[in-house]
What does this fold into?
Amino acid sequence: MRKATGNRYVERVNLALRFIHENLDRPLDLKEIAEASSFSIYHFHRIFLAIVGETVNAYVGRKRLECAANLLIFKKDLSITEIAVATGFSSSANFAKSFKLYFGVSPSQIRKPVSTENSKLGKLFSKYGKAFNIKDIYPQIVANGATNNLGQFEEIPMNVKIVEVKEQVACALASPSGYESTSLFKTWDKLIAWARNNGIEDEKQKRFAFCHDNPTITPIEKCCYEAVVVVSPTTRIVEPFFKVVIPSGKYAVAHYKGTPEGTTNFHMSLYSNWFPNSGFEPDGFPLMEHYLNDVRKDGYVEMEAYIKVKNVI
It folds into this structure.
């Protein structure tokens, strides 16, 4: 497959992924997903498997369950039945059964955990080798099993500001193994070298990452991470790199400086502790990390988290 053709295939599959993500609240069939990417239904499932690494049904099912798990954690005002409907399940009973089969714990255990032991019972472990651990979701649960104030994450001092961002065009490269550190470093090395070759000196590179998934729920290697460098709109971009757009709008921006391991809890604290009383809610675009240093040189991460927001209705 020629590079230009391959790049176009990836772009079209990304259209299918976007369609899936925007319609998880209802039944989806292969025909309409294929149509969203302008592929023939007769070939789409093979193209999707080749590019994504999962069948369409497996991907849709996993994203429904991951979305439901995030809602259970962060949307305490929604009942389990409401979450089942919001993620496309026909009934709360079917949802509970699917959730338990995949994560090895029930939806109610996410809300009111009685144990902090790893679950190795679900498909998440048998298929991906990821043991589901409630302590990863609620890091304030300590060895004595305290479960008070669940949904409130460790309070991290943060000064969140609301800024207006103008639309920006960028060159992106996806990490082939999700959030796995070696894969991230290799991805950034390739993108930084590409930027240099296109006349953008290191100190002038504006670097972001699009972080699509919650690693406490999604297997690390399945998390979608895209390294991004802002470029001129006229810059020519060819495979394996691809063009992305950072949309204009209002963003909540919070500064972080600390260990790489602490970034997940930082993100979780933003969603659990800052958003509920902010008057804003996330606006559907992935969380972005804007890097201010090189972790490999400095031994720590300094960054700004950008979350596109809208007013709570």
Summary: Residues 3-53 form one domain. The longest strand covers residues 301-311. The CA atoms of residues 17 and 115 lie 35 Å apart.
